[in-house]
């Protein structure tokens, strides 16, 4: 299949940290969002996306909150489309150059 | 020596007629998971069918494993393109579990420990096509493969065969599940290569 590949081949129950989202999300966002601060819609805690627990041994990428385990982000890559689900993310705070 | 061309048609791939389009055969059993593997205590395990009217039909582990079981031998087809032939299971047919359930539902939403869900038409759970499986190759089903029990509905891509199954909601209206809301096909027939929405 054409889901984003994970940089390493983790044991199935393992996860990677959210830094591994940088490549797959670079197709979607114009900035590196792994440094963006995401707020979990479940527990309301926040932190950089690089802290998320990323399960990549799946039909898509599933990023979970490191504090409560809720799914904050899903990314499915078909041959022609990316499907990005953020309904578990209350907000993304993205630092931008001052204008 | 004359070489007889097989031509461009009719060449059988490894796996032959058993391999749906776009799939390859694997001999091992890859493990895919969207989250941590739960360790489920059998004393607290229950499987619950809930109708559209809210009526609940529940089985404990002892009750489930005391029911007449079947031993299906089936081919598995994962949407990530691997297929595995001739896998041997033991489980209870959904025909048996749903026999005394009164419902006008046409759809089912399968629920698992950890929040995973997947949807399918109710008719795809009936007529000998689906089981609650708790043994694999003569052994109790390992947690990484969905143990203590998973749904087994092998005529659809394997994401429909929900691991760590806890219940099935019978619904009048279809309700897309975990992968079905994230770009994957709502039905997932491997023989029609229904991987993504629009396939």
From TrEMBL, chain A:
Report the Pfam families cross-referenced here.
Answer: DUF6510
In Swiss-Prot or TrEMBL terms, this protein is called Uncharacterized protein
Q: Which species is this record about? A: Actinacidiphila yanglinensis
TrEMBL record, chain B:
**Domain of life here?**
Bacteria
Q: What is the name listed in the Swiss-Prot or TrEMBL entry for this protein?
A: DMSO/TMAO reductase YedYZ, molybdopterin-dependent catalytic subunit
Residue ranges of the Oxidoreductase molybdopterin-binding domain? 35-179
Q: Which InterPro entries match?
A: OxRdtase_Mopterin-bd_dom, OxRdtase_Mopterin-bd_sf
Positions of the UniProt region annotated as Disordered: 1-32
What is the originating organism of this protein? Actinacidiphila yanglinensis
